[in-house]
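To fix ideas, we now present one chain and its tokenised fold:
***
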Amino acid sequence: MRNFFAHKGRMALSAVAVLLSVAFVCGTLVFTDTMNTTFDKLFAATSSDVTVSARSASDTGQTTSDNGRPPVMPAAVVGKVRATTGVKAAEGTVFSTSVTVVDAEKDSLSPSSGAPTIVGSWNSNDARTMKITSGAAPKNAGQVMVDADTADKHHLKLGDEIAVISAVGTHTARISGIADFTVTNPGAAIFYLDTETAQRTLVGQTGVFTNVNVTAAPGVTDAQLKKNVVGELGTAYKVQTAKETADANQKDVESLLDVMKYAMLGFAGIAFLVGIFLIINTFSMLVAQRTREIGLMRAIGSSRRQVNRSVLVEALLLGFVGSVLGVGAGVGIAVGLMKLMGSMGMHLSTSDLTVAWTTPVLGLILGVVVTVLAAYLPARRAGKVSPMAALRDAGAPADARAGRIRALIGLVLTGTGGYGLYLASTSSKATQGSAWLGLGIVLSLIGFVVIGPLLAGGVVRVLGAVLLRMFGPVGRMAERNALRNPRRTGATGAALMIGLALVACLSVVGSSMVASASDQLDKTVGTDFIIQSDSGQRITPQAVRAVKDVPGLARVTEYRTTTADYTTPDGRTLKDTDITAADPTYATDLRTKTVAGDLQDAYLPDSMSVHDKFAKAHDIHLGSKIAVRFKDGRTAHLTVRAITSSDVVIDQGAKYISIATLAKYVPAARMPLDQLVFATAKDGQQAAAYKSLKSALHDYPQYTVRDQTDYKKALKDQIGQLLNLIYGLLALAIIVAVLGVVNTLALSVVERTREIGLMRAIGLSRRQLRRMIRMESVVIALFGALLGLGLGMGWGATAQQLLALQGLKVLEIPWPTIIGVFIGSAFVGLFAALVPAFRAGRMNVLKAIATD
């Protein structure tokens, strides 16, 4: 206890590292638990006792479909349900999420957070969860009601005109009412029409419903009510209780939240790993500074176990204090994340803040266990120092031998990791290569950490020769200080190395993906413009017509996807397999490779193409027949006219047919809408056509027109945004690493107090002393940066070789990013040295010399 409080200033930075790591873990758990609570309440409140829907409807109630229209049931179902025993009330509703809503200026009113836009009929079930705060519910085709959050965000008011764009057409109405949620709205934009208008606008016909909301009579359970309804309707419709509907919705949300949660916990784990180096360095230096004290304790009778235990108790206190503070900070992080999501349009109420008892317990366990484990090696080393050696200030006699063993182990691990990376880069199968890549990354990382002290000697000398010698004697002293304890330098640099290795690896992979895709676009795409929805919506027929009416276009190609069941020549049946339908001009728009036949022939009647891997797996050759049972359609027996190469990026693994063939076997009402539309301008009219296309689609803001330059930029921006998010999460690990550099320098200054006093006494100025410490910090930071960037580029290059199996064959090293990170590391070193250098410069010379 006395040692802990005697060094409380030096423990503070280590405690901050524990605090940050625990806070990130607890913040992630509280945030995701709160989101689960919010959605639980929403789904529980909005679900009727029993819901009846079309058999083809999803369990979650989402109505997005290939043809842009929700699955419906005849209105007669409502009457049958009302007559069922145990039913108090039954009400038919219609709604769709395959819609876009725009204001009078044709600006989209859809959420930017990715939450759905829902348009439906106002009904009593919604009235339970929404309160009309102004105006009235819609009563005719000219009226619409909007939720209050959307109205506030887009400054909508009563009487404003909006338009609902669906696969059926565009319906215009004026806002008659604004309704507010009585439960938390996590960001959806909701619009209500009267029932008949909703049917015409979303489905294209009256007398149909997407759902029947059923209320149980008093004393009738939901399960019994469901049984009664199924008994009345049979199995022709989907019948779910409120719990089943809520569970299906929650499961859908949880799958997304789990990805977010485990990704964030992964970065928290990296921060914990970096924090281990900080704690090890801190306790190693504290033990070294107390060597004589430990020797005196041993001389008067303290056992090794007692010395070991005293260090571990300090670690226990450090871990406990840091973890307790981290749990509190984690709740603050969760609230901050909720506010951030609110600014993006996903509203989460702090009244739903959920702190499960497992969260603080897990935070405390993690923080304490990690801290104690990190302190174990320094504690064990302290216990092994003999009393006489300690009193002489000598190190442990086994240090040199331990260093040689460590170097040997590090070389073996690094070599094994390098061999794993080599096997990954030469693998012919992605799954096998991924396993080797993971093993290679783990072993090479551990190897570099273990071998760090050996590498420090050589790398620091090179950095010193290049960067520090120009500063004369001060630079040489900074270099020698960094080399004085290679183990300490290696551990400090390794903490920074981990974060920068991941940054370099992801930068290489991201840049290579963009370069490969751009290369493929240049080589294979023979069209000028690509029209698509960035939110994944299909393109409505009226928008396609608007594109085709644009003057100056040589051709317009429609592109659709759907699913089908295949029966191949080898007798196997493949369920729900993708198939692509396009106009014959797509063979010109996409210059894909073929290994047999001509792709143009795949667009002949009752013809198709397959890719070479599929053909090899199912014994398919030119002229083979494949039975294709289309989703919502009939079975076709198609002849294989072309076999394409799988060695591509765009449309890899696609199986092509013509839209005419698809239309022959799928009814017009069930035909899927276009996912993409390609347009090619007449020679010399590209600029005018580009402008005209944008103008033609002004009324459809959900669709974007891009030329090839725009498409490449969008791809680069998309990957860049993902990388920036990852870099932001990795910043936590880098901050902890910087704390490690600060702590190492601060403790190093204390350790060298007498030496600093002697240097000042013989003429070293304060300015020179501060510069020496800053240069030492810079060289340690650059040492870690060199190792991290080199290791990360090796990982990234290996990962690119695996991506080459998927057609991404261009390796691109983002040198501006790598050089920027390296230079930034020097500034990190300067920043980390500010406080230690300032404190060293303020030392009293005589007191420093008198220090024992």
Notes: The chain has four domains: 1-47+241-397, 57-71+90-209, 452-531+702-852, 538-698. The two ends are 23 Å apart (CA to CA). The longest strand covers residues 553-567. The longest helix spans residues 242-289.
